[in-house]
Structures are given as C-alpha cells and as structure tokens.
C-alpha cells in the first residue's frame, strides 16, 4: 500500500464549502499542503508542525489573531470563530506569514470542525500499490451535486454522514445540522422511520421522492452491494428529478457502492494495523519506540485508558460493530485533545494512549478526560473506563496499561456502568482482586474461624457468616447490623454469641477482625 498525498487547503475548503468554513484573509494561493489538525492551548508552548491547521479556540480580536499568526507561521492556516476581526494589521500579517485565516461558523462546535477536518485528511489514506488513489466520497458528492443541481449527502445505514457536497447553505437548517454533526438528527430520523420512508428507500431499486412540510423535499436512493444495503444518497431538491437526473443518481449509487466496499477493506486494514501497533506500544518492549513512531504517538508522560462497553449485544456481529464505533468515538475524543494521542480496539477493550502535560495531577486530568468522553457518548454507549498511573516513558506504559485494566476490573466487580476509575482511587480494591486470583490459582480455601463458620452454615442452614459480615460492615454497631439483616437487635446479639462460640473468633482482637474481613473479600463472601 502507498500513502496518499495530503489534502490541500483549497480541496478542504471546496469540500466543506461556506457552510462550515470561509476564507477571512488569504496570502494568495490556497494550494498549501495540509498535514494535520491541531488545537491551540494558551497554557502550552505552541509547536505547530509544517502544514498544520491550527484551531484557535477562544481567540478573537485583531491583536490576538496577529499574535497567533506569528506563532503559527509554519502552518497552512488558522481557524477562529466568526465574525473574524480583519483589519490592515491582520491582512499584512497573513501576507507576511503566508498563513491563511479562516472563519468558522458560530453554529459549529470545535469538536465538530476537528472531526470534519480529520475525516477529510484521513479520506483515502491507503490505496493499492501502483494505483492512483480513487476519487474520494467528497469528490463524488460534489460531482453528483453538479449533475443534479442539488446539495448531496452520502450516509451509512445508521444515517451517519460519510461525505457531503458543497452548497449545503442552499438547503435548510435540518441539512446544515446534519452536516455539522456528521449525523442526521435523531428527531428527523424518527420522523422518516415512522412515516416508512427508510423502508421505501431500501425496498425500491431507484430514487424515492420524499415531500417534507417544514424543509426542502428530498430524493434518496439506497446504495447496495447485491442484497446488502451499504448506505444511501440524499439530495435536497425543490421538485422531483427528471428521468435523466434519476438515471444519473442510479449510476452514482453504483459508484458509491464500489467505493464503500473498497473503503471497508481499507478501514479494516488500517484498524488492524492500528491495533497491532498500539498493542506493541502497550507492551512497552524493545519495539515500542518504533511502533510509537509509526503511530505518531508521544513517547513520554503518558496515561493509558482502558474502556469497555458494559452491555455487549447477543448478536456477535452487532456487538463487534458497537465496540468498533465506541473505539472510533474514543479515538476522535482523545485526538481532539492531543494530536499525539491514539486509540485502538484490542479484543473487547478500547485502549487509548493519552499524552499529559506536566502538572502533578496527570492521572486526575486523565480521569476528567474519560468522564467527559462518557458524558458525550452517554446513552449510546453504556461503558466503564479505567485509567492507569502516569508513565514517564514508553518503558512504563505496560504498567500504566495494567493499572487501567485493573481499574476497569474493579468497576466490573462493582456491577456499575457509565463510571470512570483512576488506579490510585481503587488501588486497594484492585489488590484484593489480585489476592483472590492468587488464592484461586493456588486452589486455596478459607481457614480458621471463618472456615468453621462457613462449614457450620452449610451443615445447619444458618447464616452466621452473613451475621459476621453485617457486624464488621457496621463497625460493631449492633443496631445498624441488625437492621441490615432485618432481624431484632436481641436476635442479632444471640447470633453474634453463637458465631463466636462456634468459630472461636475474638471480636475484640483487631487482627482477628481484619483477617475475617480479608477472608470475606478474597473468597467472595461480601455484598
């Protein structure tokens, strides 16, 4: 496979159109090669690589824009929110640095534009050796837009936008929201589904005209490979298509189908390669540095995140698809925070390697990043995330990965979901689980007073072990312990006397109490 040349600034602007980005000031030509997307952080030293696009989050005013242009003169462009303050000083600085100044529509979020730009740069990165790169989906969408004289979106089976044409600003607010979010709004999807339009589109071999009351009509056609539905093409129109344009849409659907099949193979190859490289980094061996270099991830001050869906589906294919979408979302989230982060699916766990700035609270910040991610994916992905301790370099990444795995296991053992745990916060629980593993591996069983209680309960049908557990959990408060097991306090005191007689346990001895509590935890006798 060969690497496809990076997109130029002009191509990105042509694909996105004025719906998202507009040129506020240009140094002249816009054919500068774009190498990546980076987010400006005023608290960090700016080290923008050649050709990078810098997202100027929170930057406004001519003076600040000039300062940012000077600092980013190695880049291809900077993006600030509209309205952009452009005066003679700004124009002069644009000409001096050769960096284009772009305005982002206020309706878009920074995470949205970061996702849009990264998807454009990633489009068609891999192709067969010796072949020219095929036209990408954005080019196909723009070509179809010209043929049909209508804004186009190409979507997958879940109504996620894979590509879109220019001229989206000619459509309606629903279409603009779809493009900005790269996803058809849920309310719009539900309306189309309830009215049976998806069923008609997937059952009909040709285009389907969809009259809408509060927005422009749509014409949609399913994209097929044999009997399999790969996605759909949508055009925002003002009237039904002519026969000639219908045939153009049918032919375009066949081309898009070939592209999606080719893209699926390429995506699977990239994901396998990404997973193999990240696995090598996580092992922290002699090949970790080379793998980190190929992935483009940082090699110092890293935290590992281990994320896992809490509710795998019964259908294996559907479960794998859900895990992959979850991992893709995690990769996008950490990539927006730091350009040298990476994520990949290894087995059923999505791992992310997140570079951290020196602050003394790196693990706590990584926990906040994970919490922010779960709050964003929310009800779509019911998951837990474990966070490892800071790794000073690649040699310590394996330890951070083990920490993250153990933190994730603690959350699973609690039976919770939608939670994040840093290793420092669950250290003792993780140690107890490891002790339980050791005891199981060596086929060890309870001994001493606790073992005698378990044997007596098994032989007589009593619950003296549960009585002891309630007593210890309540710090010796008999009334609270009795309430926990739903008996009268006098009954509880009688049971307490019986268990001390039978087991020989001295409840006044702190060492004996600790031993009993550890026995319950290690051998599973707990709530």
UniProtKB/TrEMBL annotation:
<protein>
    <submittedName>
        <fullName>Sugar diacid utilization regulator</fullName>
    </submittedName>
</protein>
<dbReference type="Pfam" id="PF13556">
    <property type="entry name" value="HTH_30"/>
</dbReference>
<feature type="domain" description="CdaR GGDEF-like">
    <location>
        <begin position="287"/>
        <end position="410"/>
    </location>
</feature>
<dbReference type="Pfam" id="PF17853">
    <property type="entry name" value="GGDEF_2"/>
</dbReference>
<dbReference type="InterPro" id="IPR025736">
    <property type="entry name" value="PucR_C-HTH_dom"/>
</dbReference>
<comment type="similarity">
    <text>Belongs to the CdaR family.</text>
</comment>
<dbReference type="InterPro" id="IPR051448">
    <property type="entry name" value="CdaR-like_regulators"/>
</dbReference>
<dbReference type="InterPro" id="IPR041522">
    <property type="entry name" value="CdaR_GGDEF"/>
</dbReference>
<dbReference type="InterPro" id="IPR042070">
    <property type="entry name" value="PucR_C-HTH_sf"/>
</dbReference>
<feature type="domain" description="PucR C-terminal helix-turn-helix">
    <location>
        <begin position="464"/>
        <end position="522"/>
    </location>
</feature>
């Amino acid at each position: 496979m060969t690497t496809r040349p990076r997109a130029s600034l002009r191509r990105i602007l042509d694909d996105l159109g004025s719906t998202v980005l507009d040129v506020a000031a240009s140094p002249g030509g816009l054919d500068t090669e774009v190498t990546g997307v980076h987010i400006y952080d005023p608290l960090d030293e700016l080290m923008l690589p050649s050709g990078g696009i810098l997202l100027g989050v929170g930057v406004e005013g001519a003076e600040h824009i000039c300062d940012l242009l000077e600092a980013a003169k190695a880049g291809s462009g900077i993006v600030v929110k509209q309205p952009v303050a452009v005066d003679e000083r700004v124009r002069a600085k644009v000409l001096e640095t050769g960096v284009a100044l772009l305005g982002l529509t206020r309706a878009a979020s920074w995470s949205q534009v970061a996702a849009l730009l990264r998807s454009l740069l990633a489009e068609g990165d891999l192709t067969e050796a010796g072949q020219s790169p095929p036209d990408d989906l954005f080019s196909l969408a723009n070509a179809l837009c010209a043929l049909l004289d209508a804004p186009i979106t190409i979507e997958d089976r879940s109504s996620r936008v894979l590509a879109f044409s220019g001229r989206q600003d000619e459509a309606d607010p629903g279409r603009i929201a779809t493009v900005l979010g790269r996803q058809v709004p849920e309310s719009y999807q539900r309306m189309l589904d309830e009215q049976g339009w998806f069923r008609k589109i997937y059952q009909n071999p040709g285009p389907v005209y969809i009259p809408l009351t509060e927005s422009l009509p749509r014409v949609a056609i399913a994209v097929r490979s044999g009997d399999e539905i790969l996605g759909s093409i949508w055009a925002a129109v003002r009237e039904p298509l002519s026969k000639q344009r219908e045939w153009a849409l049918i032919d375009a659907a066949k081309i898009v189908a070939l592209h999606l099949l080719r893209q699926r193979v390429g995506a699977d190859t990239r994901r396998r390669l990404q997973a193999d490289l990240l696995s090598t980094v996580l092992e922290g061996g002699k090949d970790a540095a080379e793998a980190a270099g190929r992935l483009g991830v940082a090699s110092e001050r890293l935290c590992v995140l281990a994320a896992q869906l809490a509710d795998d589906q019964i259908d294996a294919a559907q479960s794998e698809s859900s895990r992959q979408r979850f991992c893709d979302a995690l990769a996008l989230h950490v990539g927006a925070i730091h350009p040298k982060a990476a994520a990949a699916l290894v087995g059923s766990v999505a791992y992310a390697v997140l570079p951290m700035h020196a602050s003394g609270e790196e693990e706590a910040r990584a926990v906040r990043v994970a919490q922010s991610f779960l709050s964003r994916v929310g009800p779509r992905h019911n998951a837990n995330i474990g966070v490892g301790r800071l790794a000073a370099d690649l040699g310590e990444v394996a330890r951070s990965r083990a920490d993250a795995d153990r933190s994730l296991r603690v959350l699973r053992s609690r039976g919770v979901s939608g939670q994040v745990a840093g290793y420092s916060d669950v250290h003792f629980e993780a140690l107890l689980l490891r002790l339980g593993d050791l005891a199981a591996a060596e086929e060890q069983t309870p001994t001493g007073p606790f073992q005698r209680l378990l044997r007596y309960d098994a032989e007589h049908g009593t619950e003296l072990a549960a009585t002891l557990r309630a007593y210890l959990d309540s710090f010796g408060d008999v009334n609270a312990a009795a309430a926990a097991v739903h008996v009268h306090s006098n009954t509880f005191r009688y049971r307490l006397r019986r268990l001390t007689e039978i087991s020989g346990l001295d409840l006044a001895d702190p060492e004996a109490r600790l031993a009993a509590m550890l026995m319950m935890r290690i051998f599973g006798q707990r709530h």
